[in-house]
Amino acid sequence: MDPIPKDNLTGALRRDSVKKNVAAIHVSGKLSLLQRKLSNVLLLNAYDTLVTQGSHRIDARTLCLMIGYNSNDTETLKTALRGLAETVAEWDMLDDKGRQEWGVSALLSFAKLSDGICEYAYSPALAEKLHDPKVFALINLNIQRQFTGGHALALYENCFRFVNTGSTGWWDLDVFRRLMGVDGSDYYKSYKQLNAKIIKPAVAEVNKVSDILVEPEVRKMGRAVSGIRFKIKRNPQLAMMNIDDGAGVRGGLVYGRLRDLGVSDRLARQWISQHGEDHVAQKIDFVDAQGGVKSPARYLSAALRDDFGSDGPPEAPPRAEVSARAARLKRVQELVAGRSPTQRDAVKRLFLNQLGASGLRNDFESHGWMSALNAEAIFAFWEELEPGAFDGL
Predict the structure, then answer these.
(1) Cβ(4)–Cβ(348) under 8 Å?
(2) What is the similarity comment for this entry (predicted)?
(3) Structure confidence at residue 258 as a pLDDT band (50, 70, 90)
(4) What is residue 22's predicted lDDT score, i.e. its pLDDT?
(5) Into how many domains does the chain fold?
């Protein structure tokens, strides 16, 4: 899944990351992956007014888009919110005067869905602690969307804040079980089971999808494992993840010709993978034959998308086809205008996440929903988001 383009967001939702005070605040119980992602997005949405407003609001559809849950299944969302309201957060830290303070609170004091809006609140005491800037981890929302396992995301959250020190320090196994949400399970009292079912899979996923690499180390008392820590370093391959170089495409003649035309590395490899070298070479020959094309990369993109160029330049589309496209574009504008600013930002970002090619992204960022290069993809996107949106046009 592509990163969230932060240039298209406003307010608190512009941020890639959310301050999450995990050093001193522990969440009891088992949070599902959806609940964990949901709690991070709710905190991000509320952060700027966390201690000044009693409750916070977010469009429910936007909320689903933010957590990568593109669904109208409100029952699942209700279940996730109910779980957060039933989950206990506990803290044990120094107060402003240096005195030890212990406290406990429901993670959400209430949550409700009404007319497509999710309203929720934190208890005043928990809100104050969550907003405390002294101890926090930056939970990257782009990265959290990549996780498929709740334990892996929990491990990432609890390790990332130590990335600059290189190690989490030693955790007693009971503390670690609590951080992973398995402290109430007799099954995981055995380190063998804990390691096989929780630690190894979580470490593998963190190292695969996140911006850090973690390596567990154990401390023993006699023959029994008594503590665990994780060595942490930045993942230098993050920027290269999900990029398949294929069978040496960068060394091929077609790849070189694409790069000479100004096509980006990623887009060149995408076209070769999608269309094959021979077909792409044929389209390049067609573009070269036109002579004096001002934007050869864009022209080539259109040739590949609409499959013209084999038998001469494309013919002008019939008037009826032009009218139909104009009607659908107008409908897209109406669909966008009917959403709140926050929801428009989220929908725009969701569509951008589906555009893997930088050329297509650039055209959409320049022309928005009127992007000619992305027209068909835009229509398909809105048809999926709003089934029947173009019926009768």
Answers:
(1) no
(2) Belongs to the initiator RepB protein family.
(3) confident
(4) 46
(5) 4
